[in-house]
Amino acid sequence: MTTSVAPGRGAQSTVPRLDGLRNTQVLGRLPAPSSRRVRLCVKPAATAAPARQAEVSTPNATKFTADLVADEQKYIVQTYARPSNIVFTHGEGARLWDAYGKEYLDFAAGIAVNALGHTDPRWLAAVTEQAGSLAHVSNLFHSVPQVKLAKKLVEASFADKTFFCNSGTEANEAAIKFARKWARVQAGIDPYNKDAQAPSELVSFTACFHGRTMGALALTYKEQYKTPFSPGMPGAQLATYLDLESAASVIKKGKTAAVFVEPIQGEGGINASTQEFLAGLRQLCDEAGALLVYDEVQCGLGRSGKLWGYQHFGVEPDIMTLAKPLAGGLPIGAVLVKQHVADAMKPGDHGSTFAGNPLVCHAANAVVDIVADPAFLADVTRKGEALRAGLREALGSNPHVQEVRGLGLICGVQLDVPATPLVDAARDAGLIVITAGKGDVVRLVPPLIITDDDIKQCCQILGKVADEMLT
């Protein structure tokens, strides 16, 4: 194991740094090829909260950063607009450090993914333990972590069954397939007869985001995401978010298979639904013989202060999609379904090679165990209220700030000007936040483990840069 030693907020610390498997204490030896298989026991180097990471710079950081950015531009398809002067090298909790040793307060959490922050010791212990035992076997065979995770998700939600995949867009693709297959079964036709007709339309809403693969993309609101890849999947209908009259105009018996809605929109600008709207959708779906699908890829698993976003409104769906925070930074997606939906699916109808592998599911089990604790969720609610109160105090006098909104730790600051200059200035000042909506919302989706001091620092930085940028 190698260590780095440098000051961290006034105190020196010796912090384990990742150096292959040398970041673990290995008890026992790998067997020779001909020997009997003995399980490798991997003990994480840190089992309690680690000391603060140090502001350690990479040697010749300027050249290192320039060379890496040049290689990224040379070898990676340019679908992302990344800052050219930042290469993050390590993180801990709600903090990140770049190659220069500069510290950043992370209120983006990898776009609402790192629920436990960076290098959480409990998450690290789960990953290293499972990596030393069994990482992948495919879905041709049973594995313990997958079944354990499915049981936890079902018992903590409305659902009866779980399907695993690898991302949010994959979860929504699966939900589309499940809904269309279910509609064909309900219609009493042979679902494998391509000439047989059944309800197949899918309804989504303004400002929604469901993913970038072709099915999920057809349900996504922003035209600039879709137009370059036209023609899109047929059968997508759009209604106005929070407008039941608009929804009723497109949810039709004999045509609609499912309605997709985010209980709290993230990409769309941090827009929370209402009990009236979701209850109305539930009624419209029931009357039309359609499924109600909640996309909780961003707002689910504790982000809103409840385990699931829909629990704020008391209206259950038939299907719910999950992804971002579920495995604490490893790629995973899940589709939770009622039994009547699960009954429509048969072996061979859908599948995934990597989905639900032991490594990812063991990490996800650790995340769910932590986040589902009622005391943890109550603290997310408290910190979310403190964050919004702090933002209102820091930004309330600025004429370009129209609203601070959100639930739990999914928060948005609505501006009447583009948010990108403010987001860029905040990053330069050491705070990572991102945009949402029409580019006029500052989105804050920090790790759920942020502290009160983190909240105060975030509000101070945003208040200062807003005074400088939004005049």
UniProtKB/TrEMBL annotation:
<dbReference type="GO" id="GO:0042802">
    <property type="term" value="F:identical protein binding"/>
</dbReference>
<dbReference type="InterPro" id="IPR015421">
    <property type="entry name" value="PyrdxlP-dep_Trfase_major"/>
</dbReference>
<dbReference type="GO" id="GO:0006526">
    <property type="term" value="P:L-arginine biosynthetic process"/>
</dbReference>
<dbReference type="GO" id="GO:0030170">
    <property type="term" value="F:pyridoxal phosphate binding"/>
</dbReference>
<protein>
    <recommendedName>
        <fullName>acetylornithine transaminase</fullName>
        <ecNumber>2.6.1.11</ecNumber>
    </recommendedName>
</protein>
<dbReference type="GO" id="GO:0005739">
    <property type="term" value="C:mitochondrion"/>
</dbReference>
<dbReference type="InterPro" id="IPR015424">
    <property type="entry name" value="PyrdxlP-dep_Trfase"/>
</dbReference>
<dbReference type="GO" id="GO:0009570">
    <property type="term" value="C:chloroplast stroma"/>
</dbReference>
<dbReference type="InterPro" id="IPR050103">
    <property type="entry name" value="Class-III_PLP-dep_AT"/>
</dbReference>
<dbReference type="InterPro" id="IPR004636">
    <property type="entry name" value="AcOrn/SuccOrn_fam"/>
</dbReference>
<keyword id="KW-0028">Amino-acid biosynthesis</keyword>
<dbReference type="InterPro" id="IPR049704">
    <property type="entry name" value="Aminotrans_3_PPA_site"/>
</dbReference>
<comment type="pathway">
    <text>Amino-acid biosynthesis; L-arginine biosynthesis; N(2)-acetyl-L-ornithine from L-glutamate: step 4/4.</text>
</comment>
<dbReference type="InterPro" id="IPR005814">
    <property type="entry name" value="Aminotrans_3"/>
</dbReference>
<dbReference type="GO" id="GO:0003992">
    <property type="term" value="F:N2-acetyl-L-ornithine:2-oxoglutarate 5-aminotransferase activity"/>
</dbReference>
<dbReference type="InterPro" id="IPR015422">
    <property type="entry name" value="PyrdxlP-dep_Trfase_small"/>
</dbReference>
<comment type="similarity">
    <text>Belongs to the class-III pyridoxal-phosphate-dependent aminotransferase family.</text>
</comment>
<keyword id="KW-0032">Aminotransferase</keyword>
<dbReference type="Pfam" id="PF00202">
    <property type="entry name" value="Aminotran_3"/>
</dbReference>
<keyword id="KW-0663">Pyridoxal phosphate</keyword>
<keyword id="KW-0808">Transferase</keyword>
